Amino acid sequence: MKISKELMKGSTVILILTLLNRKDMYGYEMTKEMETHTDGVFTLKEGTLYPILHTLESDQLVEAYWHEKDGRKRKYYRITKSGQDELSLKTKEWTLFRSTVDRVIEEGGRI
Question: Above pLDDT 90, what percent of the chain?
């Protein structure tokens, strides 16, 4: 089943911050991690990922740095302290949102 772009749009920041909270990553690595951890349900295209990373960087929630490994120079991203604080807030917000939606859905239309 494909997830609507509107649903994805509301969750990409928390997903990216969560991945970067686990470890520093470069862009392609993030897209692969996302696909792997979601069994292919969530896919991030470069045209979606990099504008979000640039916004997170300008908001000082992530920072970028260059690292050379196996002769390849890649731009890595890491979460900042502010990014961890934002992730904590977004996680609480997501938990409330998810539980509220679940309650309505589980009511089975008895609203």
Answer: 75
Full-model pTM? 0.88
In three-state form (DSSP H/G/I as H, E/B as E, the rest C), the secondary structure along the chain is CCCCHHHHHCCHHHHHHHHHHHCCEEHHHHHHHHHHHCCCCCCCCHHHHHHHHHHHHHCCCEEEEEEEECCEEEEEEEECHHHHHHHHHHHHHHHHHHHHHHHHHHCCCCC
Q: Could you tell me the CATH number of the domain that includes residue 56?
A: 1.10.10.10
How many domains is the chain partitioned into structurally?
Answer: 1
